[in-house]
Amino acid sequence: MEIDEKTFKKLFPNLYREIVLKKMHLSIDAVRTDVEEGEREAERRRGPGMPTPIDYLRRCEDDEEAFEVINYLERRGEITHEKAEKLRKQVRERGVRSFGSKKEWGYYSTKYLGDG
User: Where are the domains of the chain?
Assistant: First the structure.
């Protein structure tokens, strides 16, 4: 269903105002290409724990460093070859920032210990 802007404004004045003023907008800074992985991540406890491959990738400066991390994790047997290929594909097609914003030095101590 299409609706022109004038009609939309008349029918939904508050919603129109929020859209135009960009109130209550949400930035999406990560992409999950695997639904099951996304669900597991959403249900995961939010305390400090063992980092996931995604956590390591979010510390990378650029795509080249992300490929090095993926290769390292695969070599050590921490991820399967199939998982490594999926991660490489996402880095190639969408870039390392598709896993989320960069986790800077001190991220965990600030988030979980209240330092900073």
Answer: 30-113
Q: Over the stretch 93-114, which tens digit does the pLDDT of each residue have?
A: 999 999 988 888 776 666 666 6
**CA distances in angstroms from 88 to 12, 68, 78, 99, listed in the order given:** 44, 10, 15, 12
- pTM of the full structure: 0.59
pLDDT tens profile 51-86: 889 989 999 999 999 999 999 999 999 999 999 999
Query: CB of 24 within 8 A of CB of 18?
Result: yes
Do residues 100 and 94 lie in contact, with contact meaning Cβ atoms separated by under 8 Å? no
Rounded distance between C-alpha atoms, residue 105 and residue 27, angstroms = 22
Q: Which of 69, 63, 48 is nearest to 93 (CA)?
A: 63
Rounded to whole angstroms, how far apart are CA atoms 114 and 90? Answer: 33
